[in-house]
Automatic annotation (TrEMBL):
Pfam families: UQ_con. CDD domains: UEV_UBE2V. Residues 13-146 form the UBC core domain. This is UBC core domain-containing protein. Heterodimer with UBC35 or UBC36. PANTHER family: UBIQUITIN-CONJUGATING ENZYME E2. It comes from Erythroxylum novogranatense. It comes from the Eukaryota.
Length: 146
């Protein structure tokens, strides 16, 4: 996020950006089926986050609650966070053995821009669940984890 007018811009420092994201994530996003927050409130670097996605309607994911881990390294938001599903899921962009969202197979991370947020990642993953190539894939038993 940049602030300013008339061609000049100020880059918002990492921690201010993350505090803004924390505030949004804790309120719940959109229809409330996507949320996120910090793993450890004492982590002054705000690196480790947990995300939750409730599976979209009319898909094999409907009614399921998926937990994810997001890790924002010191170069976030210049570079995307690493994203890994904690809940087992079968999706074309997720490594079947580790749960890692594979950057080359997931557009938001593959084409990362500084303006993108963890909210963007989670909402796009939810959309990806509803995409034709994922919406009917056989899923691991509910309540199983990577």
């Amino acid at each position: 996020m940049t602030l300013g007018s008339g061609g000049s811009s100020v880059v918002v420092p990492r921690n201010f950006r993350l505090l803004e994201e924390l505030e949004r994530g804790e309120k719940g996003i959109g229809d409330g089926t996507v949320s996120y927050g910090m793993d450890d409130g004492d982590d002054i670097y705000m690196r480790s986050w947990t995300g939750t996605i409730i599976g979209p309607h009319n898909t094999v994911h409907e009614g399921r609650i998926y937990q994810l881990k997001l890790f924002c390294d010191k170069d976030y938001p210049e570079k995307p966070p690493s994203v890994r599903f904690h809940s087992r899921i079968n999706m074309t962009c997720v490594n079947h053995e580790t749960g890692v969202v594979e950057p080359k197979k997931f557009g938001v991370i593959a084409n990362w821009q500084r303006e993108y947020t963890m909210e963007d990642i989670l909402t796009q993953l939810k959309k990806e669940m509803a995409a034709p190539h994922n919406r009917k894939l056989v899923q691991p038993p509910e309540g199983t984890y990577f």
